[in-house]
User: What shape does this take?
Amino acid sequence: MDKGLTSAIAANRFGLGARPGELATIGGAGPDGLRAQLEGPAPQITGDGLQSSASILAQVYDLRRTIRAARMRRVRGDDEGGASAAAIGAFRKLPQLIRPIYLAEAGARLRQSVSTDRPFVERLVHFWSNHFAVSIDKGVLAALAGSYEREAIRPYVLGNFNDMLLATERHPAMVLYLDNQMSMGPDSRAARNIARRRPGTRPGINENLARETMELHTVGVDGGYTQADVTAFSRVLTGWSIAGPERWRASAQPGTFLFRAAMHQPGSQVVMGKRYPDGGYDQGVAVLRDLAARPATARFIATKLARHFIADDPPAPAVDRLAAAFSASGGDLPTVYRALIDSPEAWEQPVAKYKSPSDFIVSSFRGLELPLRTDTGKPLAPIGLFQLLGQRIWCPGSPAGWPDRSADWDGASELLKRIEWADAVAQRVGPRRDARELAPQMLGGALTAATRTAIAHAETAAQAVALLLASPDFMRR
Amino acid sequence: MKRREFLTSGALAAGSVWLSGLTFAGMANGRKPRLVFIILRGALDGLEAVPACGDPAYAGLRGELQIGRPGTDGGALALDGTFGLHPALAFMHQSYAARELIVFHAVASPYRDRSHFDGQNVLETGYAVPHAVETGWLNRALAAIPAGKAPEKERGISLAATAPLVMRGPAAVTSWSPSRLAPLDDDTLQRISDLYSRDPVLGKKLAEALAAEAIADQDTASQDPTMGGGPRPLLAKRGQPRARYAEVVQAAARFLRQEDGPQVAVFDTVGWDSHFNEGGAKGQIATRLATLDAALSALAAGLGPVWNDTAVLLATEFGRTVAENGTRGTDHGTATAAYLLGGAVNGGRVVADWPGLSPRQLYQDRDLRPTLDLRSVMKGLLAEHLQVPERALESSVFPDSRAARPLTGLLRA
Assistant: This one.
């Protein structure tokens, strides 16, 4: 295999885009370098202003209590102290709380993406975060998406799939996103109490979390489950909730996962042909463990990984190999990653995948060593840039996450926006960069003669940088 | 052909008119000189902007690029018996008539290879070889001017997001750029289109995007007086040539007009790399020259009375082949033309030691032969206009340029 091509694929397809010098180091080692990146614990993000999900939710609770109190005063007509205005003011405080948290989290993620020396691992974080997607366009998720990724994805990305599955499904962000916090068994104590207090109400299950866990997180839509399985699994998951601001209760810190036994549907449930005796919380853990172990899950995950790292329509032998590695290792993710690295198909086409906007932005920042300004609000600031180019961070808009085929991203208007941004960046930094030197450092063996020639013939250094970023070679990975 | 005489007969009149206590350099007669340097990136075809209509070899060489003799339809605007200006350069021609424009021809920087990047690097660093330093000659010239008693302010401004190399260095300079993104340059877009032409997906997508934009812009186009209301070609509408430098020029004028503002401004123009379909009296080069001419006119108008204290230098990294190439354009060459205009300029002349265009007179059998070092123009301008000390010109501003004697008499007495 051509060494220049190998290092380019290692750095650009498996990684997040070569930084100058990287093809000679991380990428230059090719498959061995990628295996080395899997050694040691996954890098965690810590930093100023990054808070735990629990801490964020506690602040949300406090704010909601203020809003509720103000509203109550207004309802009572107790408006002497400007209660109306206070209610409105308090209501407006929610976005003021959420926005800085989102910006800090997205900025930290971007900084990590741009600076990491283990870009393969970082790409895997993004892959899994998208596999277990939450979206910031719902409720308070904008405040939780970042901490969710740090708490439920990152720690497990080099671990076992079972652990990541459990960590995500019970994370407050996912519980809220897929509406499980109030799902209760119709025969649970809580449901019976409510029905007694408010005759006519019939509290019950919400299927969302159970369905998406099967459809999107484990066995896949063709994974062999029926509506009855979804309903049964929903009952299993009743009680998987979040500790509220119930400060008198010592059972769980506000804003953390809480299994509410009183909401849990009593009795055994049959999910996909297997009977699970009632074990409270453990009933759900058991179903998740079995879902993760199903061959359909291995195949579903293998297909998604192969699509992300090899081709839009991944070759069957590669999918088979990854699925076998997943099953044989009991979901040990580094084993699956190594099978991916060992797949010859991953090393064949130099630029088989069209970059997502996120890939395009991150690889531009890495390749040109662009300075990061995360104090957004300005249109060119990097966080806003993701939105401008069509992939707002943590905002796929659906639990299915962002799509992962070229056709999902290569729209005409989006392409023009990339080019315009490339040109704007080139105007700003181009005069200080030499694209003739950068191109081989960023693209290695994937640099085509056409792109090399276009860069060499550019009339200014800035135009050369624009051509480099806009080139077909750089648009793909 | 009669060879023109250099104006360097006398040694540099080293008499820097230093009036103690003045803040600004060269404040002779109590006036503050202003200097604008416009970088023409991409290698402007000097024989297209300033055709040598009177050279007997000219007519046969240029094919479709040829500009007719003055007085003919679409012909050159007369300068003297040998040279004319491209018909799109109406304001420059007016300036010439007003004795406010000097055209230097067969001029080149010391760089003799044909890389844009390296050529621009030499044009901006002022060194004889590319990539010698990370600072520019104009900044070092500002640094060499003794400080006045008043608190030091930035003497230079770049009308760009990032200061071009010529303006970088030890002297404090500032910069300004429009807050919104400038439209993508047509030439850059054309090159990207070319790069995509072999791509199965991207070429089609880009064409679709441009077509969609053209439709979306139809309404605004018909209301845009500069566009004449008619349908615009796909690429031309993006750059909006005439308005292109308007914002930059207005800003430059605004800054330079201030009595306590910067006295030196720099900005870039791009798109001069005319390898393909260059055009002649009409066509791509004509459009770009008209844009440049309009920008200069706007600059003069914007400066108002300050125009009389202003000298504008326009220079490009190198010239282009004398003969038309195989795609109705010209390839990278060597000598070209440079331009100095403004109310402070002692103009109305062409300064050229004309080498001629016949085959054996060409440089490496293809390019206009350089007979004037661009640094002679720059040194003369800095010495006379900004009163940069000769000592500094020879040591820190243009090292190893002693052979390139400063031209004298460039500015009005």
